[in-house]
Here is the input.
Amino acid sequence: KAELGLVMQLSLLLLLLWLGPQATPGMEDAAFPHLGESSQPPPRACPPRCSCPRADTVDCDGLDLRVFPDNITRTAQHLSLQNNQLQELPYNELSRLSSLQTLNLHNNLISSEGLPDEAFESLTQLQHIYVAHNKLSVAPQFLPHSLRVADLAANQVMEIFPLTFGEKPALRSVYLHNNQLSNAGLPPDAFHGSEAVVTLSLSSNQFSYLPPSLPPSLERLHLQNNLISKVPQGALSRQTQLRELYLQHNQLTDNGLDATTFSSKLHSLEYLDLSHNQLATVPAGLPRTLAVLHLGRNCIRRVEAARLRGMRGLLYLLLQHNQLGSSGLPAGALRPLWGLHTLHLYGNGLERVPMALPRRLHALVLPHNRVAVLGARDLASTPGLAELNLAYNLLTSARVHRRAFRRLHSLRSLNLAGNQLTRLPAGLPTGLCALQLQRNQLRALEPEPLAGLDQLRELSLAHNRLRVGDIGPGTWHELQALQVRGRLVRHAVPSPPLPAL
Here is the structure.
């Protein structure tokens, strides 16, 4: 009986091995794990040469692809095809990817004919589309209702359609810079139904006036590098949340702006850039909320205090490279700017330091003017000044008063390079960290003017008329902190940078 039982068990085992796993479904892995299928899931399908780091992500960047890859899973949510050679997207391949949330086509060769509108009808979950640096001549006529970010920059787009960006309640950012858009190419209802757009970039196009009917939700509007000569009345009346407005490098004149252009409803505006235009005066009606006003590279001849009244929160005023002459900044013209931190006036024709500057001024930048005199009280109104730059003016030692710097107890950086000084100025503030005197006419260096400058780290005397014998004994004795001198020039206390807005 024992032998019979053993024979029956062996026969049963041979039968199971002969029949294979189909004979006892579900049992082979438990009883005979070495005979069953692997417990690991099957590998995910991924297009050749692409990578699929996650189940919902397909990355085909920079593969020099000329044909849309096949074998993309229908469940893909993020597809990147940037930096390839694609000229078109097949409708049947794109439309089946109904789960897509991000489509990145940046830097290809796709034309408007190669981007079928019908394909987007199936992409009902698409939130981010990047088609910058392609060859689109017109924008897609229809983009999904779910869109949040659209980047069509650096194409050849000449026309936008009502449903390209209209009726997109979640749309937040639109980038259309470096195209060929004119006012005729942007319909009045281009953003109808899209009430959440906060960033719109239309720079480097061909607009001749500020487009009307922009989204009322805007916080940042870029219109630099266009042909704008006029801001129509009421064009910005709905943009009550606008914080940054960039209009530099246009053709704006005083006639293209009126007293209501900026004052009507722009109660949140903090940054206004009107540089590189043709303005002859400071615009009227500037918002009191401004923190940065950039008016450089215009034709402004005179600044009137009335135009700046109420702007107590202005921190940065940039007036460089205008036509401000001897009467361009009358005494007290900037007095309304109580909180002014930095004033840039370089590249004008000023003959004196402006009188009655704001008391809290921290940095005064005046190089490349015609300042020939520095009186005892010229800087008396700015005791908090930390940086003073008077480089490349017409100052001589005889016309720099010995008490010109006596009230500047906070001064840390003084730049007098490129003038006509023959000796060190007297009464230098003891807190100085950097003193630049290169390219003057210095003939002697005595210890008295440098006495007490125990914090001075950098002293530049390059390109003067000094010889070794012209440096008096004990000149360097008190300069214990000095690190750089002679021909070595570095900026120890640079101008405070403009806020990153």
